[in-house]
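Tutorial, part two.
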Amino acid sequence: MKCRYACGTKEHRIARRSFLGTVAAAGTGIAVGGLGVFTRPAAAAQLAAGQKRIVVFNMHGGLSQLESWDPKPKTDTGGPFRAIPTSVPGLHISELLPKTAQQMHHLTVARGVDTSEDDHGKGAYLMMTGRRQTPGVDYPQIGAVAAKTLAPEDSPLPGHIVITPGGGGGRGGDAAYLGPRYASLALGNGNPPPNLDRPGSVTDIAEAGRHNFRRSVNDRFLSRRRTALTDAYTHSYEQALRLMAQKDAFDVTKEPAADVDRYGKHDFGRHCLLARRLLEKGVTFVQVSHANYDTHNENFDFHLEQVGEFDGPFATFVADLASRGMLDSTLIVVLSEFGRTPNINLYYGRDHWSRAWSVVMGGGKIPRGSVYGATNANGTEVTDGKVDHGMLFHTYLQAVGVESTGTFDIDGREMPIADPAAKPIEGLVA
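Running the prediction step on this input gives:
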């Protein structure tokens, strides 16, 4: 199916077919030295001791709440799809999510989200940072905050990983003042980072000699000009060495064939299975991207296909975390930059809508099988339990045991972990 995106912004020029893998991923390389800027993931041995983790499913473009978590059938805005019962009595979601419906006893829907920001870039920023963009200052995204607050120092694996469709690689610019050690490592199309294998021509003796020489030169330099930047540079090499020894963590082909079949052999299924594998290996934060929901045209045909693709792998992921005893220590979030308009336009599409939409959470301290907030009969406004991005950001952190009202010490300056003008959502952190 071809979908034309009327808003034409750069955030949404990723075609669906490239996501599904018919366009080859144009991977960009990561220098081995650059891998080490990702730090503090949980060691596998510590998972049993209650190491907390977060996984975000980012529905890029603006998932329609009316075709997912807050259907309004038989209304002037509801569209053609039915609402179906779930594993939670009285809770109904769109019929496009039949498998997820059977896992809703593990999840909670926040139906009263109002962020009042209909721009893709600004909406994505506020949902990932919990704050509005401000000239002259940048804020770290949730993955960077999780890596800094939750992950221990000594793991070989990155603490902040983003699994993206299409090409991609390298570190992101999403850690702001927390520094490059907490920035994301992008896995383009779920592929492992490149350059994890040592060239065959380099012997063990030569490799050891190279690193001994590097360490001696670094120590000499650091004794005279030590800064946060030089520490990050030095650390990057050491973590890169440890990461090379853990390269199998990124290899989803190591998973049993039965699991591959359950998740599905398309890209999104593979990405969800990889996310589970990374969490089990000790990664603190994983983001899985599913795109592109910017349905100004043909909204219903597109959601029929796209949400249908999301449903099975996501439901399998939730069920797996529950059956493996990981839900208490792992927060699941399904978000987007905004929702879609209740009004259906002349192209059978829905436009940008941030005044009444939904976010789904589960695991950690989030109550199971509940609904928070409500919208009116045709979904045009929030009638109960209104929340915004700042409140959600606090809630994510509190759900995994982070005191979100605390501060970071950044070169002697206290920086609030989350927006001090906001607070966690009462009733959503058990």
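The radius of gyration is 22 Å. In part three we will examine how such features are distributed along the chain.
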